[in-house]
Write a structure and sequence with these properties.
The chain has 146 residues and is mainly alpha-helical. It has five helices and no strands.
Length: 146
């Protein structure tokens, strides 16, 4: 969340610094490329963290290869749907850059809320988590106190 939020801050300042409709070519040495570059770096790093966590979580939740394959397929399908919607909104003729930024921020915020609602919380005791680990033969070291 920290890197994603930082990316949104850099992108917002970048958008506020440019005049509406002012699209021009920039040289790599131009200081105007600094904020967008920092935004893309933050978003890229946060994306790699989310991808790693998602695949780790799929590995923990599904036992056999067929179940994991279905889970990964479903995950990639939903991810592709998100990319499709995103690319449909990218041209500034379809949606102004500030509205694009707002739409992605709302999407990010809703995703965080849904993810927080899906956390186990107090549904699992320490004993239940240990039994799940023993059944799978893994040591994930997840501790939820009773």
């Amino acid at each position: 969340g920290l890197f994603t939020s930082a990316g949104y801050v850099f992108a917002l300042f970048s958008e506020l610094a440019t005049e509406s409709g002012d699209v021009r070519m920039c040289d790599i040495t131009d200081s105007a490329v600094l904020l967008p570059t920092l935004a893309f770096i933050c978003w890229g790093f946060s994306d790699s963290l989310v991808q790693t966590f998602a695949f780790w979580l799929i590995g923990c939740l599904y036992d056999g290869a067929p179940e994991r394959a279905r889970a990964v397929g479903f995950y990639k399908m939903v991810q592709s749907l998100g990319w499709t919607v995103g690319f449909a909104l990218v041209p500034s003729e379809r949606l102004e850059p500030m509205w694009q930024l707002l739409a992605t921020f709302v999407s990010f915020s809703l995703g965080v809320v849904v993810a927080l609602l899906a956390l186990p919380g107090e549904r699992f005791s320490t004993t239940q988590v240990a039994l799940l680990d023993a059944r799978k033969g893994t040591d994930t070291r997840i501790r939820v106190d009773e």
